Please model this.
Amino acid sequence: MRLGGLVFDVLAIATALASKFFTPSAAWIEADYSNGLYPPIDRAVRTLTDPLPFTLGDLLFIVALLALIAWWARRLLSAPKGKRLSRIGALALRTVAIAAFVYVWFNVSWAFNYSRIPLAEKIPVHNERTNEDSVTAFAEHVVVELNRNADVAHRILSTKHRDTNLDREKVSSHPHEFVEDIQALVPHFNNVIERLGDRSIFAPPRVKPTIFQPLFEASATSGFTDPWTHEVNLDASAFDFERPATYAHEWAHLAGFADESEANFIAVVACTTSHDPLLAYSGWMLTWFNLPPTIRVKHRLSRQAYKDVRAIIARYRKQVNPRVEKASRAAYDQYLKANRVKAGFASYHLFVRWLTAADYDRDGLPLVRPEPAL
Model:
């Protein structure tokens, strides 16, 4: 191995270890990364990736994987007899160095947001409201809101479907877009992220199809935000009334809120403060499926809301492979914990605590602690 190559390998690995174990303080990340370096990084990356009609992240993954396999095969086959073992060691070191470089890119491009000041420190929570009675009362409220919005939401969807049938070519060219819903969501989403600490506006991301759609279905993955290319994929099999909240969740990730529960919270508040029945219904449906399983409500779901809940469950039972889902959740659990999310996969459900026990203003936005004076 040449000296220059060895220096690259050592520096790449050392830089990755430094970015892993010497992350700046949460206050610095909040002020100088999430509200400093990160917004222009997001704009620059999306300037390159948003116009593409395909998911660049998918392409990069496939090309990188095939290139890595071909490189290993070519280098091993060309190795002189007796030197194959040393060649394997050199290849392994270079592979680790390349992975380290990708990891640094991952952190700088987006993942340092995991270390910003968590919402748990921004939103005052009344612990006395987190008992079973309070959560049950909140669950009753969720049922009331689902029932209130269900029929209207479906009438809106019926009208949209009837109108789009007039222009099938236009619809088929953008099967993953729902532009009107996104535009209705924009001001409310911006209000929420501003209240929770963002000082920049993050443009709505373009939703793109993905070659990993079968994996989405088998693992019960509703959406994915690529931290390297800042592209968003949604499960194409999701119902139309699910998509706004899922979209807002992924958009929250791009807005610098990496934690899953924080993204869920932002999605629900943005949707439910919109006063748009379809968006509100989507937000309350997301909340319904994240309520504690032990909660038993007295109010019954309306016929339409019940039908929608059963349809989601039926889709889950039809598509999801239990082994794939278990493996996916275990892997993601470890990923989240490695990125300082102590609750791991369970963090998805923690936002119900804020919905139940925080205080809200007249616009439905959470009250937050004042920022400390500099």
In short: Residues 3-115 form one domain. The mean pLDDT is 88. The chain has two domains: 3-115, 119-357. The longest strand covers residues 223-225.
